[in-house]
Every structure is written in C-alpha cells, then in structure tokens.
Amino acid sequence: MKDTTIEDVAEHADVSKSTVSAVINDRDVVKDTTRQCVLNAIDTLNYRPRGSARRGFQAPMGQSLGFVIKEIDNPYYSEVQAGIQKVAAGQGYLTFVCSSEGSFEQEEQIVKQFSNKDLDGLIITPILNEETDLSHIFELKRNNVPFVLLEDVRGIQAPLIDVDNVQASRNAVEHLIELGHERIVHFAGPEYSIHNSERIEGVRHAFSRSSLVFSEKNVVRVGDSWREGYESAQAYFSETDFSSGAATAVTCYNDLVALGVLEGLHDMGRDVPEDVSVIGFDNLNLLDYVSTPLTTVHVPKREMGQKAAKLLFRQIQGDGVKLPQRISLDAELMVRSTTGPPKF
Prior knowledge:
Layout: H1 6-13, H2 17-24, H3 32-45, H4 52-55, E1 64-69, H5 75-90, E2 94-99, H6 104-116, E3 121-124, H7 135-142, E4 147-149, E5 160-163, H8 165-179, E6 184-188, H9 194-208, E7 219-221, H10 226-239, E8 249-252, H11 255-267, E9 277-279, E10 296-298, H12 301-316, E11 326-329, E12 332-334
Parallel strand pairs: 1-2, 1-3, 3-4, 5-11, 6-7, 6-8, 8-9
Antiparallel strand pairs: 10-12
Helix pairs in contact: 1-2, 1-3, 5-12, 8-9, 10-11
C-alpha cells in the first residue's frame, strides 16, 4: 500500500497543494474553515509529513511565487512585477521572475522547474502560437497548482487578468480616422503573443466601421523592440513617398516599437505628426523621459500585477471561487503630441 502524499490530502480536501503546505506550516494565510477541512483530510488519510514536506512543502524557496515573462528587457513586465511584489511582500512572500525570451521550450522548462521547486503559485504570460504545446499549463491545472494568466489561453479555464486589446486597438485606429487619416498601417508584434493577434483584430474592426478597406498590406510584421521599430520604419518609409501612397499614420504593437519608429522617422528627416502620426501601446513609465510625448494606449500594469497576485493568493488560501475569474481592466487612449491631421 503506497504512502499517502500531499497530493492525496489536497485532492481529498479539494484545495491546492500549497494550501495543504500552508496548514502544515501553521501559516495564517488560510481561513479557518479551509484549515479545518485540510486538518480533517490529514487525519482521515493518516498523512504524516516527512522530508521536505515536514520543513514546508515549498522548502527549497520558502514562501514564494513565480512570475513567468516573455522578454527580460521589456520594461512592461517590471511595472507588472512591481504590482505583484507589493501584494506578495505584504503576505511575506518572495517573487521569482524568469523569462522565456519568446521560446515555448524555455517557458515549458521554467514552469516545470518552478513546479519542482514547489512554489506556492505562478503568474504566467504564456507563449501562444499555432505550434505551441500547452501541456505544461494543463498539467498545472491537473495538479491543482494555483496559477493566474496574463494572456488568454483558449481551451483552458483559468483565472485571467488582462485588458480588452481588441477594443483598445480599435479606439487607437478610430482616433486616427477621426483626424482624417486614410492610409494607416499597423506595426505588428511577435506572433507568439495573443495580444498581437488581438490588436490586429482591433485594426480590422476599426476599418470595418469606416469607409476604409482593410488588407494584409495594412499590417507590417515588426516585433516588440526599439530596434525592430527603428529598422522597420526606415525600411517601410524609404520604399514609398508620402505623397504617393505611404501611410500617414502608424499604430504600433507597443511603446518600444513606437519609440523606435519615432527615431527612425527623425533620422530620415520626417516630422511627427506633420508627416506621420504614431501611436504606441502600454504607456510605459519611461515615456515620462521622452522628449516627444507619445500618444499611446494606457495599460494599468501595476494594477494588473496587484489583481493577479490577489487572485493567486485566494487560490493559495483555499478561498478561490469554483469557476475561474476573468477580469478585464480598462485601457484608455492617451492622446499626446505624436498624432495630428494628415498633411497629404
């Protein structure tokens, strides 16, 4: 007869392994009714913690959370992390951050390593494309590991904190249309992000609600970095003269791309917004230090991190709702000096 495991106790009590660990270690993060339910399961199953479980289920790292991001050099994630850490520190938890760098294989390894280290829960910005194998995320759900997603994974019922990227992108393009722009191009992001496809869809929606006709030429595959924005702007705008067909306005996947576009246009002798209007996405804190105030979509990144952490702790404490919560935060267009009426 096999020994009773912490997984058996978690299943019997209908809680996560992290909640069982919290009860074993007499942490005060678990509500009394859940604690008693776990203690009853331990007694019923005659469970006896030993080894790492006796020191704490998460012994190698202590009370800790994992935050899985996609680009280590993207300041967007540092702002989300600030929100996560504020909540986590208030609970006496550390937060460990690892980046997949856009690699599904690396994300899978990170999630498995975090799980092996028995962190109390994970907040994940997943790699998503047509070739992605999401088995490691399904495995988290099967093993009752608390986790929250910051991008939607279709087919997985899990807690999600995000903004309505389709609506936000549509609002940005509609702003340009209202200014009189008819030649609008979208500098798209990496294909491994669902946010990329959602923002392209927002461009489509804006076109469909106007007299403009959308085609694949309205989308330029760029990426997510300043360098890619700079190089793509120079390549795109050097091919066609503004007065004879080039776009008079650009919406960008994120602020880093938009800042690269601004610099690329400047080095070509093009004026913003007189020659080209430019819109970013995210409203990064670093925009406060940019000489040209960028029109962009504000994403409440710190709030996103805080809400994700709070939702994660509800799962850890055994106080989560039975059905996963999906929270959509407001994303507001911030109109600044990089957008104006077209000259041509």
